[in-house]
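Take our chain:
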Amino acid sequence: MYLIETYIFGRVFRMFLSALAPVLAIIWATQVLGRINLVTDSGQSIGSFALLASYILPNIIPVVLPFAVIIAVAQTFHAMNNDSELPVLDAAGMPRRYLYRPVLVLTSLLCLVSFSIDNFVEPVTRLGMRKTIAATYADLLSSVIEEKAFRKIDDGLYVQISERVKGRVLRGLFVADSRDPRYEMLYYAREGAVDPKGGTLIMKDGEIHRKAPTGSVSIIHFDSYSFDLSDLSESKGEAKLRAADRDLPYLLNPDVDDADYKDDPLSYRAELHRRLTDWFYPVTFALMALALAGSAHSHRERKVHPLLPALVFAFAFRWGAFYFANRIENGAEPWQLYAFAGSITVILILVIMRSGRRLGRRGSLIDGCETVMRKHFRRGGAEGTSA
């Protein structure tokens, strides 16, 4: 790289980190706080909560990263113009490729990072998060619930134990289950224990009171009864593997005997094509920022900060990508997603090439937007005067 390229690369990279860190921290905090009930409801330690928080972080990096890129590029070039650096480079006749090349090199590296996280790191952390939550709720009865205190395990499910003894044995069990609207169930048992896998609560020497909506109650005495906890642990921890939990090799060649794949094969198809397009968005967003802020201009020419229209275009593009990805899950052809993302990228390249070889030439995308807005307001004012 030339000296000017190294300078631009360093400024964009520092601005990228400055934009990525606070945005990532805010979104990460909101996601982590949504799981705070793991500590409050299940009595887990702060270590378990920190482990869960570390699993969440890779899930949001690929989403935040392109927006940090567009903020960094737009803000850097806007600051260089305000410092008269772009006009000086324009007056010196420097070709534009020396401005764009460091940005494209940086965003290409970020594309590789995004691809690696999205296809290899994120599936592993998703699976770890699901297993952590499932194990927490599966172990809730045997080690967390306080003695002689009612605890809500799930909506409509409450448990109380009188005493906990060695060997994961529970004495004086009371379970109230009203999750099924057809009837209410009350379980009493002198003794019980949760199996090592956490999928079954085995109760001994007790009775079941079943109350129907009509008010009639039937009582059943039992010597041994198994209360299924597998649905509870799966619903809380979502232990069942979905398309988003699979890595790229599995999505390219899914197991046809997989129960979840049989139930919804289109979700695996949509997830595959989403991952094959999302990783390239840092380059697309960088081109968008260059088209809006990559030209020299005077302060009288441009009234709008380029970051504002850049973010508007970025959110519109991201919404369109989500829309076409969801259409694949509903049966649409994948080429629509590739056509949308590819056409936007090609248009941005053409806009940048058309804006001129030298920095001083007008014709950038933001200049065009301002021209249209200026003509619109002038036309509206003229019509009002004639009226």
